[in-house]
Design brief:
about 170 residues; alpha/beta; Rossmann fold; six-stranded mixed β-sheet
Length: about 170
């Protein structure tokens, strides 16, 4: 009987510790960072790829319950006077009232031809802290799709899928 009581007590203690860890995780995710999504540098052959990926990422982050972003139209209006000048990402974040900026480079946005044609989108992503000016998150993403007998994947669909993946991966603590 004493052994059973000891085991039950140990089990209750473990369950309570587990509940505390769950509460800490919820509190941690409840403090979402306010991002501003900046234009992406475009190194692909598509002249609008940087804008397309930026727009898809803005939508994916906005739709996510775990992220807050500065309204894209507000970002454009506030940064318009600085279009011909170089501003550090940290300075842009301060101007926009964001805790961090999301930016990056689109390195590939095209159809690859071979046995068929396959859309491919590649992005190098960076998140820069407004407080320190340092990169707090960096990752390269690539997404591709192929024809299937049911449906053909498009560049737009692949870019949206990639943006949703980025939004779900993005965890930043400042």
């Amino acid at each position: 009987m004493k052994i059973l009581n000891l085991l039950l007590t140990g089990l209750v203690v473990l369950l309570l510790c587990g509940c505390e860890n769950m509460n800490q995780m919820r509190a941690k995710s409840g403090n979402s960072v306010c991002f501003a999504v900046l234009p992406f540098e475009n190194l692909s052959g598509d002249p609008n790829a940087g804008l397309k990926v930026m727009s898809d990422l803005e939508s994916a982050l906005s739709a996510s319950k775990q992220h807050k972003i500065i309204e894209p139209s507000e970002v454009r209006v506030k940064l318009e006077p600085y279009q011909q000048k170089y501003l550090e990402p940290q300075k842009m974040a301060e101007l926009l009232g964001a805790q961090a900026v999301v930016t990056g480079t689109v390195t590939e946005y095209r159809y690859v031809y071979g046995a068929g044609e396959q859309p491919v989108v590649s992005v190098n992503l960076r998140v820069i802290s407004a407080k320190t000016g340092r990169t707090v998150y960096a990752k390269s993403y690539t997404s591709s799709g192929a024809f299937s007998w049911l449906k053909e994947a498009s560049l737009g669909e692949i870019a949206k899928r990639l943006s949703q993946k980025i939004a779900s991966d993005l965890e930043v603590e400042l």
